[in-house]
């Protein structure tokens, strides 16, 4: 039986941390399941059999969480389709229309 307690609960208070203000704002604004409404990140690590390894894993997960939530998203720039792409689309539509019109019943000339 496993009788030693090797799990780690890492608690990281965002407001009391020495992170830059920009990072704090981004983390507090994010709605993530690891961040409590009070602004505390709680990570439980229990994948390894030694407490030291679990501690390192929890810190690594905290670092990756901070990096993931503070990355700046590129803003989308609206674009228009080119003239050539419009022409290709219309040509393909007319080709399909022709193909489908030829699928009808064959009528005998009278």
Automatic annotation (TrEMBL):
Q: In which residue ranges is the amino acid composition biased (Polar residues)?
A: 92-101
Q: Which InterPro entries match?
A: Pep_chain_release_fac_I, Pep_chain_release_fac_I_sf
Q: Which domain of life is it from?
A: Bacteria
Describe the location of the Prokaryotic-type class I peptide chain release factors domain by residue ranges: 2-103
- GO MF assignments: peptidyl-tRNA hydrolase activity; ribosome binding; translation release factor activity
Name the GO terms of the biological process aspect. Answer: rescue of stalled ribosome
Region annotation (Disordered) ranges? 73-110
Q: Which family does it belong to?
A: Belongs to the prokaryotic/mitochondrial release factor family.
Protein name as annotated: Translation release factor-related protein
């Amino acid at each position: 039986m496993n009788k030693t307690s090797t799990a780690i609960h890492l608690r990281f208070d965002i407001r009391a941390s020495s992170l830059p203000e920009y990072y704090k704002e981004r983390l507090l604004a994010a709605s993530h399941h690891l961040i409590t409404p009070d602004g505390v990140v709680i990570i439980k690590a229990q994948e390894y059999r030694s407490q030291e390894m679990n501690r390192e894993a929890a810190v690594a997960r905290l670092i990756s969480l901070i990096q993931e939530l503070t990355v700046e998203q590129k803003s989308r720039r609206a674009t228009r389709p080119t003239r050539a792409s419009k022409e290709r689309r219309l040509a393909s539509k007319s080709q399909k229309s022709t193909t489908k019109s030829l699928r009808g019943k064959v009528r005998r000339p009278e």
